[in-house]
UniProtKB/TrEMBL annotation:
Its cofactor is [4Fe-4S] cluster. Pfam families: Radical_SAM. InterPro entries: BchE-like, Elp3/MiaA/NifB-like_rSAM, Methyltransferase_Class_B, rSAM, rSAM_horseshoe, rSAM_sf. This is B12-binding domain-containing radical SAM protein. The keyword Iron applies. The keyword ATP-binding does not apply. The lineage of its organism: Bacteria, Bacillati, Actinomycetota, Actinomycetes, Pseudonocardiales.
Amino acid sequence: MGLPVTLVFPPAADPSLPHGALPLLGAVLRRGGHDEVELRDLNLEAFDHLLRPEPLAAVSDGGAAEVVANITESRRILRDPVDFYDPAKLLYAKRIFHLAGDLITAGQPESRFGKYSYSQATYDSYEEVAHAVDTEAGPLAGYFRDVAVPSLLARKPRLIGLSVPYFSQLIPAFLLAEEIRRQDPSVHVTAGGPVITWGREVLTADARFGRWLDSFLVGEADETLLHFADSLAGERDPASVRNIVRYAGGAVLEQLDPTYQLNLDWLPAPDFTMLPLKDYFAPKRVICMMPTRGCYFNRCAFCNYAFIKIAPYRMRSPKLIAEDVASVVASTGEDVFSFEADVMLPAHLRSLSEALLERRTDISWHGVARFEKGFTPEVFATMREAGCVRLYMGLESANERVLKAMDKGTTPQRMADILAMCHTAGISVEAGVFSDFPSETAAEAEDTYRFVRDHRHVIGRADAGTFRLLKGAPIADEPEVYGITVKDDPARRWYHLDYEEDTGVSTGLAERIQRLYPEVALIDVPEDILYNARFGPNAFRRFFDGGGEAADPLPAEAKLSLAEGVVLHRVLVANSGAVHFDGSESSHAGFEKSQLAITIALDRHHSRVHPLGDNEEKVLRRLAEGDARAGELHSTVDTLVAKGLVTVQDGAGA
Ligand code: B12
Ligand code: SF4
């Protein structure tokens, strides 16, 4: 019996996979005697509800006919076990999906509904959050009011817990809480997750946040949420619940315990059957589990990763992880996993692999590691044998001085060696890279660009971004060491900090690296994992690379047009992973100001994404607007014809 609890994952995040927190917290609560726990992925439900022909047609002014006409087919492709693996179809469906997200928020410049984006509002104070909730409700307002909240409340939960790992969920979480309060003020609303933990100072400084929340939990909350549910059920003294902050009677009551850490072996296996797995927008769901928590290195100057500053690095016993995997496979039939922890030691990746091999789990998995000296070809071979198909590694920079300044604890040579080892073992690598670290020069950024370009055959995907100063990162705690002046009081900022820099330049490195991996604008990490699991390392690189044969130069009179199936898009990719098409850069001045802008040509028929240089873009835009002759345009036309983006019209020409 216990307490009727509903745990909610609010929009907006990736609707292709379940986040790991709810199935774990749900299993903990059930084991603790709260049988009536329900999990609701309102992110998935919102995508499913809003990105349909009817709601889209209602907001379309006719200019978006392609989106309305193709959304049903795109939804089908994303879930289809055959068509999903056809890159041309997947690209098309993803593009329509992104455009539909833009369309549903058309006319509301402050919001964009998409994976990892919703409101652009800042949220460093109660006033800012209240302003966003009052003025930027967008399409979620009606959806929460008429559909989501009535169905949440139908079960009469006494506790609703909001899970907030992504910033793109923050304003929607407050909007949702507002609506829950309006429809039933007696339900206790709590929240947790990395974003809530990062914001604890802002949240505790102002009792008015009690407008939305009755409480929130800080840090890892598996055991503490259970204790809190017990206390609401009258089975535990509320004063004994650790790491909870409560809003009561106009006051804020903190019960923080900075020494708290959980023994990971205490946890049950996550229960993914509590979510409607078949409804996600993917033919298979990547199952996220965290075998370790925290970071054993914990030094990188720029990093404030989730909870690494709160609790130390720990690993769950490999045998138990293998049992968890086996139980998820048996109960769901899923066989692609993501062991995406904050980071894992080479020795732990090896012991996890050995446990999986011993348990004979037949899965493919993605993991995360550092460019660490403990890696050897044997470790990678064991990992590959145990199903590892992909790793995320923070490369950040390939310049010795910048790496030292970041205290990254690795070298370009070690990176090159480890990339080669992964390649030999058959493991694809996604490399995180960012530019504009304070003091970085253009020449140093150039080293990184060359490194990535020259290792493109062993880097399957690059996650390129620009430096942002984050609260809690070592560089923010010792700014003078790095030649920066922090302009904000960190206690009054939720996450980002403004700063001034003595030296350093904006290098444009991230955009240039993005051009080496144009597919990143359309293909998200979970799809990349599924493709690697199915087709082997660097799957998208192999599909998208190529281009046509060298062609003879065209006569000046040749009449040209865009090849069939080619569309051009200005794409903005934010550090958060959000993607917007054809937007005006200035309209994203808020949270996403560090976005990269490139123009891509999407060639549906040959399933390719081409990045365009300035000249190529000019020529193609001109062709898209009407016909033109080769002689009128630049010499770039020959290259574009060779790439298959431009065709010479039949019967025309010299
Ligand atoms: C797995 C993972 C992914 C996976 C899957 C994501 C998913 N939808 O599930 C993948 C690889 C796809 C992914 C991608 C990205 N991710 Co990610 N990801 C993670 C990671 C490493 C683990 C998440 C997880 O499964 N945790 C396991 C659960 C059990 O832990 P948890 O969510 O923290 O939950 C615990 C507590 O927070 C709390 N809790 C959680 N919910 C609730 C609810 C209540 C009511 C309560 C009381 C408590 C509570 O209790 C739980 C148990 O202790 C986190 C880092 C982290 N340590 O959380 C980053 C993280 C969530 N990702 C992050 C980011 C930024 C990204 C990217 C957007 C990065 C990028 N720029 O590309 C990309 C998106 C890529 C793309 N373009 O597609 C950030 C999010 C913060 C932000 N800035 O918005 C995080 C926090 C990493 C970080 N920087 O610290 N990610
Ligand atoms: S960037 Fe990775 S290795 Fe460095 S401190 Fe953060 S989590 Fe640890």
